[in-house]
Design goal:
The protein is an alpha/beta fold. It has helices at about 20-30, 65-75, 115-125, and strands spanning about 15-20, 35-40, 45-55, 80-85, 110, 130, 140-145, 150-155. The chain contains three helices and eight strands; from the N terminus they run βαββαββαβββ. The strands form two sheets. A four-stranded mixed beta sheet has the order 1-4-3-2, with helices on both faces. The radius of gyration is 18 Å and the shape is globular.
């Protein structure tokens, strides 16, 4: 079989703009256990990029060498890029459009979890805002929470969704 033109393509990262990078980093690191793997500063353009990944203890860690760490990060799957535009945190009225209000556009990111009920308890313990709990609405066993910038995050337990869409 011949190689397809898209062989080797992979979805590397999703970018969200954040108002306050320290609060956003704390949220994704503390609540979702993500690890900051790379920061890229662009002061001449007045923005900074923060790349986070969910890396298990048994998985390869990012290399220590800066260049190799950048190459490694851009070759992974499931990276979350938080983009901070300088000064947004100083404007109390500033907020980004979450994509779920009108006009709709971007929808959400998603985390799969091994135990949805335990995840819901964890989110409650950490005062995470729910859009939808797993027992609400017509689509059961799927939750949606919001991050501090209002972006929706879908939470699901794969083993509970074997009959989904049937």
């Amino acid at each position: 079989m011949s190689e397809q033109p898209t062989t080797g393509f992979r979805l590397n990262h999703t970018m969200l703009r954040v108002k306050d990078p320290q609060k956003a980093l704390d949220f994704y690191q503390r609540v979702f256990g993500m690890q900051l793997v790379k920061t890229l500063d662009f002061p001449e353009f007045e923005f900074t990029l923060y790349f986070l990944a969910k890396i298990g203890e048994d998985e390869p860690q990012p290399p220590k060498d800066e260049g190799e760490a950048t190459r490694w990060m851009f070759s992974q799957r499931g990276i979350l890029e938080l983009t901070y535009n300088y000064g947004t945190e100083k404007d109390a009225d500033f907020h980004y459009h979450d994509g779920n209000e009108e006009p709709q556009g971007f929808g959400h990111i998603c985390f799969s979890v091994p135990d949805l009920d335990a995840a819901v308890r964890w989110f409650d313990d950490n005062n995470v805002e729910f859009v939808k709990r797993p027992d609400e609405g017509g689509l059961k066993d799927i939750a949606f929470v919001k991050d501090l910038d209002g972006y929706w995050i879908e939470i699901l337990e794969p083993s509970r969704l074997t009959g989904l869409g049937r």
